[in-house]
Specification:
With 549 residues, the protein is α/β, with parallel strands linked by helices. Helix content is 41%, strand content 15%. It folds into 3 domains: 175 residues, Serine Threonine Protein Phosphatase 5, Tetratricopeptide repeat (Alpha Horseshoe), CATH 1.25.40.10; 272 residues, Rossmann fold (3-Layer(aba) Sandwich); 69 residues, no CATH class.
């Protein structure tokens, strides 16, 4: 059914273009079941060269949708690039190009285009639907769930859009079923699920002795590998609907890290009736007003609970032979970012760096950009930064509806003033709410994070264990030295060099080529695409930043 949603969303993305021009051939181009006849009509419009830029952009977009229907992805992408050049504000062109990349298996490129479509039209329902399915394809279930919920929040207005909303509702229901909340481990990722014991003090004063679900991912090879501990956010309303934590496994696994992802007690598959991360009011204070007097909230208890999960995970990892217990990176989003910074401040051994995505606490939908008691969070961060030499990197967005743009800067200043080391990045606005920074902000934070990890002794772009060794055959960036391929292959190699790791370029003895990028199985996929089911035996020419020919 989800594949059907993508096809429908792709079609609906260009409905608004059907009345874009009064050209005589437009009805034959925009309507009908005969794809080839429509292609001929669209081409006549384009080659007629008598349209304005926006109308010509619309014609290219519709023709691209027809190429997409014929699975001619390269032609579709070429037309959409022209459509975007003619009309950079054309959100449907970005959405359709994202759909083309999705069908080619280039999910990172697809998500980037869906992000651009949403940035140009924050109420673009079909782009949210398409991005949700792209997130599902890379295992980011929580991000997919957020997009499907957004589809349900936006106005429909037509039968087609209401149909997409009904399918999104079905997707949400599927994702909240037990099987989807706790999917079977993926053997290809050496994914395992364990339960780790932990005792916590609950907001009601009781002591809870329980356990949390920990998901681990092991790269190929014996190790030991540097490890990341990834902490999710917190939502008092939606906490029981959290999926098993698997966020960011793809980014870090492609860079040779083992990933340990705790799902904290009180959330999803580790859920209990009481929320251990619920903030407390001072003793004797009665909640008042629509925000419950939240400017008096004390976040020490929830931050302590969140940090305790991280420290328990570090202890568990210390007994794994394939984890380098002296090279640990803490990573967290939203509340998880705050918990990671505080955990690093405990002087736990082995922590070498911290990555904070939109970290903080106290955000309320009823008071956007004005979180509850930010001074309390500031004090916690100041304490965490005291005499703390661990390097950290912080990412926020200008339109973070939880914290705004100025409060995170004040938190950063407090952390650094106390002695902490923090590299701060304020990203531009992301969609309607920049608090959800990990998915929509990828193109901004990814190169910065790669650089940060490199500067701090990690090698995020190194060859994976199953790659051939470097040969020195040619410099990685010299397209003229790529053997056997024609000019089109050299142009493709130039595009390959702009892709994110993990990436691989393969060449056959007849000059046929293929590449894959941004996927955990990029090497195998590049060879398979080049080999075309055994028609030729291909070799890898380049992997990441090395020539291996």
């Amino acid at each position: 059914m989800w594949r059907a949603v993508r096809r429908l969303s792709t079609a609906f993305a260009i409905l608004g273009l059907l009345s874009a021009t009064s050209h005589a051939a437009w009805p034959d181009c925009s309507k009908g079941d005969d794809v080839d006849r429509r292609l001929t009509a669209c081409t006549a419009i384009i080659e007629g060269n008598d349209l304005g830029q926006r109308e010509l952009s619309a014609a290219y977009t519709v023709r691209a949708s027809l190429y997409l229907a014929k699975n001619q992805f390269d032609l579709a992408i070429e037309d959409l690039a022209k459509a975007i050049e003619l009309d950079p504000a054309a959100a449907p062109a970005y959405d359709l190009r994202g759909a083309a990349f999705h069908r080619m298996g280039k999910f990172d490129r697809a998500i980037e285009d869906f992000n651009e479509a949403i940035r140009r039209n924050p109420k673009f329902l079909t782009a949210y639907s398409n991005r949700g399915h792209a997130y599902l394809a890379i295992g980011e279930r929580e991000l997919a769930m957020a997009d499907f919920r957004k589809v349900l929040e936006l106005p429909g207005g037509t039968k087609q859009l209401e149909f997409i909303q009904n399918l999104a509702r079905s997707s949400v229901e599927k994702l909240t079923q037990a099987k989807d909340l706790n999917p079977d481990p993926d053997p290809a990722l050496s994914e395992t699920i364990v339960k780790v014991p932990l005792s916590l003090r609950l907001p009601n004063g009781a002591e809870h002795h329980g356990e949390f679900v920990l998901t681990t991912f092991k790269p190929r090879g014996p190790g030991p590998f540097p490890a990341v501990i990834v902490s999710h956010g917190h939502s008092g309303v939606l906490r029981t609907m959290f999926g098993r934590n698997r966020i960011l496994w793809s980014y870090f696994m492609q860079r040779g890290f083992a990933v340990l992802a705790p799902t904290r007690i009180g959330h999803g598959v580790s859920s209990i009736p009481i929320d251990p991360e619920s903030p407390r009011l001072p003793v004797g204070v009665v909640p008042q007003g629509s925000d419950g007097g939240c400017d008096l909230f004390d976040f020490r208890l929830p931050v302590g609970a969140g940090s305790a999960h991280i420290l328990a995970t570090i202890e568990y990892a210390s007994n794994l032979s394939w984890v380098d217990k002296n090279r640990i990176v803490l990573v967290g989003g939203s509340a998880g970012g705050l918990y990671s910074l505080v955990a690093a401040g405990t002087a736990a051994s082995g922590i070498k760096a911290v990555v904070n995505f939109s970290g903080g606490a106290g955000g309320l939908a009823t008071r956007p950009e004005h979180p509850c008691n930010p001074g309390n969070v500031k004090a916690l961060l100041s304490a965490a930064g005291k005499n703390n030499s661990i390097p950290t990197i912080w990412f926020y967005s200008e339109n973070d509806k939880n914290f705004g743009a100025e409060i995170p800067r004040a938190w950063h200043d407090a952390y650094v003033s106390a002695g902490g080391r923090a590299e701060f990045h304020m990203l531009p606005p992301l969609g309607e709410d920049g608090h959800n920074i990990i998915g929509p902000g990828t193109k901004y934070w990814l190169p910065l994070l790669d650089e940060f990890l490199t500067m701090n002794g990690f090698k995020p772009r190194q060859l994976p264990a199953d790659a051939p060794p470097p040969t020195g055959f040619a410099p990685i960036g010299d397209t003229s030295k790529v053997p056997l391929v024609d000019d089109k292959g050299r142009a493709a190699y130039a595009i390959f060099l702009r892709q994110s790791v993990l990436r691989a370029f393969a060449i056959g003895p007849d000059g046929f080529w293929a590449y894959s990028a941004g996927k955990f199985d990029a090497l195998a996929e590049a060879l398979a695409r080049c080999g075309q089911n055994g028609r030729r035996v291909c070799k890898l020419y380049a992997v990441n930043d090395d020539v291996v020919w």
